[in-house]
Amino acid sequence: MAFARIARTGLRRTGGTFGSYSCEGDVFLCEGSTNRRSPLPSLQNAKAGRDFSYISSIRKFNRMSMQSRGIRVTPQYQSATAERIVEESESEYDEPMYPGLEATKPGDKPRVVVLGTGWAACRFMKGLDTRIYDVVCISPRNHMVFTPLLASTCVGTLEFRSVAEPVNRIQSALATSPNSYFYMASCFGIDTDMHEVYCETFSNGGLPRDPYQFKVAYDKLVIAAGAEPLTFGINGVKEHAFFLREVNHAQEIRKKLLLNLMLSENPGISEEEKERLLHCVVIGGGPTGVEFSGELSDFIKRDVQDRYTHVKDYVKVTLIEASEILSSFDVGLRQYATNHLTKSGVSLMRGVVKEVHSKKIILSDETNVPYGLLVWSTGVGPSQFVKSLDLPKAPGGRIGIDEWLRVPSVEDVFALGDCAGFLENSGRPVLPALAQVAERQGKFLVKLLNKIGKKDGGKAFSATDIPLGDPFVYKHLGSMASVGRYKALVDLRQSKVHSLSTVVPVKFGAFMWPLALCLSYMQNPDCTTAISLTVLSSPLLVNFTLSSTDEIFGLSLAGCKRRISCWVC
C-alpha cells in the first residue's frame, strides 16, 4: 500500500540514473558517473551499534540529494517513520477514489436519492417526474424481483428472467438522463445534517480498487432498503440454510436440489444417506413456505417421477411450523391448505428449531430431523443497515415514520416498505411486510413529491402554504397463496363489517395474477365490477369486466375497460 501511495503522490525516477551497487558496507549514491559515500550508515552497521540517531537527518539529506538523483521531491516531506507510513497509507486508502456526487447548485433540479430496488423503491421511481427531479438509485441489486413468483423458479416452472425486471426499464431516466444514475453499491451511513449518504461499491473483483467508498449528496432521500430474513439468533441458520428473497437464492436452491438428486443415484450410497439427501425441509408456514412446499410437491410428481425413477420413492418434503400454517388467513382457508398439502405428499410438523447443523436440525423437544435441502422462510426483520442508523425507530426496530411517510426530526428523509413502520405515538397499526403495502406506499409518496415539486415546495415540505393532502391510509385488498397442483387461496376479508373469504382453486399459469387483481378490485369502492359465470361443461369460465381509475402493481386500468378470463377448476 505504501508503494501505491508513493506512485499516486508523484514520487518517480527518471530512467538510467541509478547504478547497481552492493550494500555490504555503507550506502553509496550515484551522481551521474561519480560515486560518493553516503553520510548515513548501512542497516547492518546501525543495527550492530544500536545507533538510530541518523534518522533525524533523513529529511535534510533527502532535500540535498533527491534532485541530483533524478527523483522529484514531494513538498513538505517529513521523516519516514514506520508509524507515519502506516498512518498515511491507511488514511489514503480510506479516501474515496471517486468523490461521488456533490450537492446540487442553485438552478439545478433537486436530486432524489433512492436506497433500494424493491417494491416500494421501484414503484416510487416509476412514477417520479424526471422533469422536476434528478434521480439516483443506490442498491447492490440492479433489478426488481417479483417475489410472489420466486418459488416457481426454484423448480423450473418459471425461468429466473421471468421474475426480474431491470431498474432502468422501470425508470428510463437512470439510463438516459445525464444527471440520473444507478450505482451498484451498498449504503453504510447517512449524514442527515450534511444531506449525504456514504456507500461502498458492490462487485466481484472486477474493479481496480475493490471495494472503495464514495458519497452522494441528496436533496430528498427515500430509504427503501427492505428487510432481512429473521433467524432468531439460532446457531447454524446462516451457514446451512437457504433463504428465498432474491433470484440468486432461487438459483442456489435449484442447483442444490438437482445436485442431491444426481448424487443419490451414485453407487455406494446407503439407504439412509439417500433418504437424507432427498429430504427437503421447509421452516416456516407462511405464504412463502407454503408456496415453496407446493412447488416442490409438483416438481416431485411431475419431473422426478419421470427423470429420476431410481430414487423417486425417497424424495420427501416436510414443512415445519411452530403453530398453524398461513396464520394470517381465514380459518377455513388454513384448513383447506392443510388438507391439500397433506394429499400432495407434504408432511406437516409442528415444532421450534433449536439448532441447525450441516446434515440435520434439532428441534426444541430434541427431535433430530436429517435433511439434504433446508429452506428458511420465517419472516423478515430490520437489516443491520437499518439498525445502525441514528434515526427514530418504530416497534420492531424499523425506521419510524409519520402519516406522510416522513422520518420525524430530520429534513428531507422518507422511509418506505419493509424497513419502515409508523411510530408508536402516531396511533397507526403495524403494517405487515407485504409487497402490497410497499407498492402502495411508493405510489403515495411519489404523488406527494411530484405535487410539491411542481409547486416549488422546497425542502421537506417546509413551505407552509402548500397543503400536504390526506395522510397515507393502507387498505388491504386481499391475500393470495398458491398451494400446488394449480390451486390457490384467496382471502378477501376487508373489515369486521364486511368480510369475504373465498377458496379459489385456480388453474393459474399466466392468469393467476390477473385473477388476483380481479378479486381484489371486487372489494374496491372505486371500481365497478361485473361478473358473469358461464357453464362450459367443466371447468367454468369466469369473465371479469373491470372499469377503474386506479392502478395496482403497475397495471394501469385508467380510462378503459378490460375483460379478463380465468379458468376455474
Helix content: 25-40%
Report the biggest beta sheet as strand number plus sense, adding barrel if it closes: 8 strands, mixed
Mean pLDDT: 77
The count of strands amounts to 31
Family: Belongs to the NADH dehydrogenase family.
Keywords: FAD, Flavoprotein, Membrane, Mitochondrion, Mitochondrion inner membrane, NAD, Oxidoreductase, Peroxisome
Subcellular location: Mitochondrion inner membrane; Peroxisome
Domain FAD/NAD(P)-binding: 111-442
Structural write-up:
By secondary structure, the protein is α/β, with parallel strands linked by helices. It has four domains: 2-94, no CATH class; 100-227 and 383-461, 3-Layer(bba) Sandwich (FAD/NAD(P)-binding domain); 237-379, FAD/NAD(P)-binding domain, CATH 3.50.50.60; 479-568, no CATH class. It is built from 16 helices and 31 strands. The protein has an eight-stranded mixed β-sheet. Strand 1 and strand 2 form a beta hairpin. Helix 5 (119-127) runs parallel beside helix 15 (435-454). The longest helix has 21 residues, at 287-307. It is globular and about 75 Å long. It starts with a helix and ends with a strand. The relative contact order is 0.09.
Q: Care to give the gist of this entry?
A:
The chain is an alpha/beta fold and about 575 residues long.
Protein topology:
Elements: H1 2-9, E1 28-31, E2 34-37, H2 43-49, H3 58-65, H4 82-94, E3 100-101, E4 111-115, H5 119-127, E5 134-139, E6 143-145, H6 150-153, E7 164-166, H7 167-170, H8 173-176, E8 181-191, E9 196-201, E10 213-217, E11 220-223, E12 228-229, H9 237-240, H10 247-263, H11 271-277, E13 279-283, H12 287-307, E14 316-321, H13 331-343, E15 346-350, E16 353-356, E17 360-363, E18 368-370, E19 373-376, E20 380-381, H14 384-388, E21 399-401, E22 413-415, E23 420-422, H15 435-454, E24 479-484, E25 487-491, E26 501-502, H16 512-521, E27 528-535, E28 540-548, E29 551-552, E30 555-556, E31 560-568
Parallel strand pairs: 3-10, 4-5, 4-11, 5-8, 11-22, 13-14, 13-19, 14-15, 21-23
Antiparallel strand pairs: 1-2, 6-7, 8-9, 9-10, 12-20, 16-17, 17-18, 24-25, 25-26, 27-28, 28-31, 29-30
